[in-house]
Amino acid sequence: MPRKPQVNFRLKPEGKDGFSNIVLDFAYQKRRLRYEFGQSVKPNDWNNKKQRVKNKQTTTNDGKFALNDMLDNLEVTCLRTYSESLKDGIPDPNILKRTLDLLIDKNHNNTEVSNKPTLFSLAQRFIDGEIKFKGKDKSQSSLDNYSAVTKHLREYQVYSKFRVDFDTIDLDFFYSYVSYLKNNKKLSVNTIAKDISIIKVFMGEAVDLEYTDNMKFKHKKFAYNEEETDHVYLTEEELTKLYELKIANKKLDEVRDLFVFGAWVGVRFSDFSNIKPENIVKIEGDYFIKMITQKTKELVIIPCNPVVVEIFEKYADRVNKLPKTISNQKFNDYIKDVCKLAKFTEKGRVSAKPKETLAGLVSSHTARRSFATNYYLQGFPTLDLMKITGHKTERSFLKYIRVSKLDTAKRLSAHIKEKWSKKLLAVD
Questions:
Q1: Lowest CB count within 10 Å: 21, 60, 80, 193, which one?
Q2: CA atoms within a 13 Å half-sphere pointing along the CA-CB vector of 115
Q3: Alpha helix segments (H runs only) across 86-229
Q4: What SS3 state is found at 416?
């Protein structure tokens, strides 16, 4: 007979501040809910057997409730919701999570739970993929970003003892929240910028749904600009050197081939590392890559140059005519080793890391960036390139490519030579 599902409270690894976050763990019917609710304790104050704090007088972070009482309420609410939902089938973990969110919001606000939407309940609808863009599903990376921002907001609410909801999003909140992300969470400038932009997306949706008439998030000061990040690309000459490099190690040899392949097709690592046989098509004697991209769900059709065709021939015995796929993390480690073998020792490619060699800066994403930058420098139409890279605006595309000052100077020099040669010919 199956064991009756039960709620467990566990501690996450101890943080730098000496505290561990408490997690509600509920496994049932081959499903699992792991729920963090913004409470933490010192491991020495925790009773692992009873799964409660040792001192019954210990309160929640905001000091409003006894922490053990909150844990009891979470356990009872989780089990009750699970039991009541069974009549409609095995409940999805998100259903249980929403009910627990309502309980947590009730504790924070110290009011009775109502059906009135909150910023967190709306955010959950984004995380669940319910709210779409023009009817299209959001990518998993977007859903993950929504989840990360919601987690930051909950943690900030506990830390600051400031209620976060539609009516409290204003410049005071903005200044305080940015300071928290920067000084307490130690997040990068671009991560903070992404947090703020997503909060504005949440608020914009709330206004459209008529959940709020608060427009203070539209203030021109309610913005956090991204820093221009330094990323490298490999020139066609460097790609050729890499491709012609003799590598004895089979793993590194395959990683090199997959990288070069990616640099000539221009899609993301998640796409070029998972090409299927049906994605390789032959049209009027020429090979093309035809696929729906994972992130944007858009159809792309990319002609295969001779190098790509050679790679297909080298791996003709493989189902998809390409090297075996490995994780992005391992790929990034191996491609750096490959670039070291190629003696990519140049330094100063990026201002942020002037002492780093080119080999140390290359990653899986360098392939896609190399594709875009090289074809751009050759004068290939920007709008056509954007159909492959997936950029929606020319401005975002131009920020993406890596054209150095030397590249710009060379293009201007070529333009000057061409212009003046024509004038001299006209005089003759």
A1: 80
A2: 0
A3: 93-109, 119-127, 140-160, 171-179, 189-208
A4: helix
Q: Average pLDDT of 354-371?
A: 90
Q: Which tens digits make up the pLDDT trace of 229-263? A: 557 889 999 999 999 999 999 999 999 999 999 99
Question: What's the pLDDT score for residue 180?
Answer: 94
Domains and CATH numbers, the chain: 7-218 (no CATH), 236-400 (1.10.443.10)
Strand partners, 303: 288
By DSSP bridging, strand 31-41 and strand 286-292 are unpaired
Q: 308: which residues sit within 8 A by CB, 6+ positions away? A: 261, 264, 265, 287
Q: In degrees to the nearest 10, what's the CA dihedral of 29, 32, 37, 42?
A: 110
Helix axes 250-265, 364-377, angle to 10 degrees: 40
Site of tokens 């949706």: 205
Query: In the chain, count of helices (H) and strands (E)?
Result: 16, 8
Buried b (16+ CB within 10 A) or exposed e, 33-60: bebebbbbbeeeebeeeebbbeeeebbb
The crossing angle, in degrees rounded to 10, of helices 236-244 and 364-377 is: 130
pLDDT digits (tens, 9 = 90+) for 330-347: 999 999 999 999 999 998
Whose structure tokens read 């993301």? 268
**Do 222 and 175 form a contact (C-beta atoms < 8 A)?**
no
- Can you tell me whether residue 309 is helix, strand or coil? helix
Judge contact between 99 and 113, C-beta under 8 A.
Answer: no
Determine contact, residues 226/190, Cβ cutoff 8 Å: yes
Q: Which two tokens stand for residue 133?
A: 């863009």
Instruction: Name the pTM for this structure.
Output: 0.55
Nearest-angstrom CA–CA distance, 51 and 139: 37
pLDDT over 90 at 311, yes or no: yes
pLDDT in tens, 377-395: 888 888 888 888 877 788 7
Contact 242, 260 (CB under 8 A): yes
pLDDT at 34: 94
The pairs formed by 12-20 with CB atoms below 8 angstroms and a separation of 24 or more are 12/36, 14/43, 15/40, 18/42, 20/46
Residues in the chain: 428
| CB 48 within 8 Å of CB 78 | no
Average pLDDT of 88-95?
89
- CA neighbor of 177 nearest in space, from 222, 212, 117: 222
Coil, strand or helix: which one is 291? strand
